Amino acid sequence: MVLDGAGDEIMNGTRSYILGLDQGTTSCRALLFDRAGRVVRVAQEEFTQSYPRPGWVEQDADEIWAVQERVMRQVAGAVGPEAIAAVGIANQRETAVVWDRATGAPLHPAIVWQCRRSTDICDQLRRAGAEVRFQQKTGLLLDPYFSGTKLTWLFENDPALRRRAEAGEVLFGTIDTWLLWKLTGGRVHATDVSNASRTLLFDIHARDWDDELLGLLGVPRAMLPQVRSSSEVYGHTDLLGGQPIPVAGMAGDQQAALFGQTCFAPGTAKNTYGTGCFLLMNVGGRPISPAHGLLATVAWELDGAVEYALEGSVFVAGAALQWLRDGLGILRETPESDALARAVPDTAGVYFVPAFTGLGTPHWNPEARGMITGLTRGTRREHLVRAALEAIAYQSKDVLDLMEQVSGVRITTLRVDGGAARNDFLLQFQADLLGVDVARPEVTETTARGAAFLAGLAVGFWRDRAELATLWQAERTFRPAMDAQERDEKCRGWKRAVAYQT
Ligand code: ADP
């Protein structure tokens, strides 16, 4: 455990808060957490998204920083900098920023994780037979989603930039690295292992940037940040006034949420129900080989030990409800779906496969498209709404089943968060389908909370993970109530519906 200059004040309680920064895809948030892990202040602001061509997504790294700094100052100003023990960062993952080492100026718009511009580069590498190497070393697939091929694209389009990067004049970072650089006034160029593990450049077994992969992608080592643990003092920020405050925790947003949900033991898992779903399961100290579209990823490094996770994603979850609202106009607002779904005893045989943008884990079929089956003259909007909510649960079950199969570990409780986790019908149906408890925490700000926990551990604000585990409280636990025969019948129906697409 690392204690710095602020240690005495942390111990005697005058520094009462940890500042968690949650730099998301569409907004920057700053949250203050007290010793009980409760949120005492929040500020949030959106920033600009640019879509310069179909499939391309860019952001302005300077704007991200300006917005992040503003919300951070807002919440810090409310309690004063001397009350803050440390800062932790959780961030949208894989988004790539390059900037000038000397001036700190970004040299290209940030290329966002969603951006598909490096699809051809991924295809070429796949044709050259490189995917297996990437998979073995990084746990990832060759997909434009990850940062590495975004850099390849930049250099193919600007060879002079590569020469400058080789000379050490240009720096690369994911958003954690960019924020840390800014917070420390350009003194620290570092990332944490969880973020490094999303770049396609990092060997998750050797825990270092990998020269073979750097060579395949044409990325100079000189531009890469130092890889550090997820919980340690990386540097200090003096931007808030008062004594410099340690920046002491970093993790990618999904890993931070896993930590914030205190999924510390192998076999514990969380599902975030947002636009899509992100499921992560802690698998302990050894990575499990990825299979069937599951990714192997670093969960975090803490106290000298790296822990790993399996990750699966569902592309369309809450977005299916938004489509019923905006596309069909049969919902006024998405929360209304809860009562509508309960207004009918079942979907009357209707299944909704919301594969608007292909199917993710375990099907991994980019060509699949959405479908509604089993319509009759008696089908009502309640049935469609119910089928949409049930589809979120079926898709999540498919991912969890696969995780259990691949890891050999049986999940006992699923911890949940995200906007659609407010839907009680959905969570009850999820518990029924899985046959395990589904637990919604009192504090649903799990991403920022995970960043705060990581930072707080590093400066002695919290003692250890056992203490953090006591701070996690269920607001409500949904217990399975459906009998096995009914469940199996429903799941067979879902599988038949999905089979039309795969
Ligand atoms: P993201 O971070 O992906 O933008 P959020 O976690 O903010 O997503 O969740 C937003 C999603 O949750 C939307 O797709 C919305 O349709 C869905 N959602 C929000 N509230 C409910 C609800 N009560 N029932 C079902 N879906 C909901």
TrEMBL record:
Residues covered by the Carbohydrate kinase FGGY N-terminal domain: 17-260
Carbohydrate kinase FGGY C-terminal domain: residues covered: 270-458
Positions of sn-glycerol 3-phosphate binding: 25, 93-94, 145, 253
Enzyme class: transferase
EC identifiers of the protein: 2.7.1.30
Activation and inhibition: Inhibited by fructose 1,6-bisphosphate (FBP).
Amino-acid positions noted as binding glycerol in the UniProt annotation, renumbered to this chain: 93-94, 145, 253-254
Family: Belongs to the FGGY kinase family.
Alphabetized InterPro entries for the sequence: ATPase_NBD, Carb_kinase_FGGY, Carb_kinase_FGGY_CS, FGGY_C, FGGY_N, Glycerol_kin
Keyword Transport attributed: no
Catalytic activity: glycerol + ATP = sn-glycerol 3-phosphate + ADP + H(+)
One GO cellular component term: cytosol
Binding, ATP: 25-27, 275, 318, 322, 419
Protein name (database record): Glycerol kinase
Gene3D superfamilies: 3.30.420.40
KW ATP-binding (keyword) present: yes
The entry's keywords: ATP-binding, Glycerol metabolism, Kinase, Nucleotide-binding, Transferase
Protein role: Key enzyme in the regulation of glycerol uptake and metabolism. Catalyzes the phosphorylation of glycerol to yield sn-glycerol 3-phosphate.
Species the sequence originates in: uncultured Armatimonadetes bacterium
Pathway(s): Polyol metabolism; glycerol degradation via glycerol kinase pathway; sn-glycerol 3-phosphate from glycerol: step 1/1
Gene: glpK
Residues noted as binding ADP in the record, renumbered to the chain: 25, 29, 275, 318, 419, 423
Gene Ontology terms for molecular function: ATP binding; glycerol kinase activity
Short name of any one Pfam family annotated for the protein: FGGY_C
